[in-house]
Amino acid sequence: MTLCSCPIPPGERTFLAMNSAGMRKRWTVISLLAVVFIAAYVSALFSFRAESTLELRFAGVVPPVPDYVIVQLDILEIDPALQKVWLRLIPEPAGGLREKGRPVPTRALTLRADGARVSFSNASTEGRTATVYAPGQTMTPTDVIDTLTNGSVGNFPFDRYQFNFRLSVTTPDPAAPQGYRHLPVIIQAAPDAGLAGFTFTGAVSRVEVADAMTSDAVELDITVRRSPTTFRYTILLMTIAGALALGCTAVALVVAFDPRYFQPAFLPWMSATLFAIVGLRRILPGNPPFGSLPDFLVFMWAETLVALALISLVINYLRRKPPPVP
């Protein structure tokens, strides 16, 4: 048995070379797409911890003296529809105010959050709240409710809000003119402070006013925005809804100009798309109320286009002539 070593014809060699080059090109494109997807996936995982955070910028804050109080700020919940935000203040004595071996104050302290309302405190009045801690008593966290301003949920996902309040700590002092003196307060963001779906940026400054009850206080002015992931996901859903509506409209126009392209499968497809767009609207992050900006930008028009396209297909179907009977 002998093997034939017949030469490959030039035309077949050219075909094999072109086929091999095409395969290499396809695999190169697939590899590049895989690398881009992996890089985007890893970047999204790293940005998860960084986007829903609380950042505090400090301006003119007095350095701590031997006696001061550290207050950690945490975000519990936010409701843009109700224009409310729930915060948690976690105070802790420091320096000479801290009892040795125990995180309790050595003297009586009063924590005030002016401009907000404390949920649970010893004394509470409209616009001014106070929590009193006795010497040796554990400084339990204080929950604060504040009002969101300068924003509307109707502008979702471009909406932004602000809230602010003043924080001060006093201790009884018979030598002081008012019978008490203010203690320096150091504001910190609590570990893992923040809330999924939002980013918080705060400015902390020390204020001096004439009112003895609020003088030498620390003022917090915090801005609330939607997180980048919330913004990108909303844009993605709006793009999908718009693309589906344009696709249905294009098919309806083709069938309207040439009924020969009509397919019975178009009817259930467009009927399902009509309800799919409603489902996309319902899963928007944060569940914005009806009448928000995405409804006017995309969803209302997408539903209208798909409904008109479906009605156009039904009319074309009814106007079709039955096929001839053999």
Protein traits:
4 helices; alpha+beta; Acetylcholine Binding Protein, Chain: A; 326 residues; 13 strands; 5-stranded mixed sheet; elongated; single chain; 8-stranded mixed sheet
User: Do you know the CATH architecture of the largest domain?
Assistant: Distorted Sandwich
Number of domain modules? 2
Name the CATH class of the largest domain.
Answer: Mainly Beta
Q: If helices are DSSP runs of H or I spanning 4 or more residues, what is the number of helices?
A: 4
Whole-Å distance between the termini?
A: 62 Å
The secondary-structure element order is: HEEEEEEEEEEEEEHHH
The CATH topology of the largest domain: Acetylcholine Binding Protein, Chain: A
Fraction of residues in β-strands = 25-35%
Bulk shape: elongated
What is the CA-based Rg, rounded? Answer: 33 Å
Rounded average pLDDT: 82
The total strand number stands at 13
Helix content: 25-40%
Global structural class: alpha+beta
Uncertain stretches: 120-127, 209-215
Describe the fold and architecture.
The protein has helices at residues 10-51, 228-257, 266-282, 293-319, and strands at 54-59, 67-79, 84-95, 109-114, 117-118, 123-125, 128-133, 142-147, 160-172, 180-183, 185-189, 198-207, 217-226. It is an alpha+beta fold and 326 residues long. A hairpin with a 4-residue loop joins β2 (67-79) and β3. α2 runs antiparallel to α3 (266-282) and α2 (228-257) runs parallel beside α4 (293-319). The longest helix has 42 residues, at 10-51. The two termini are 62 Å apart.
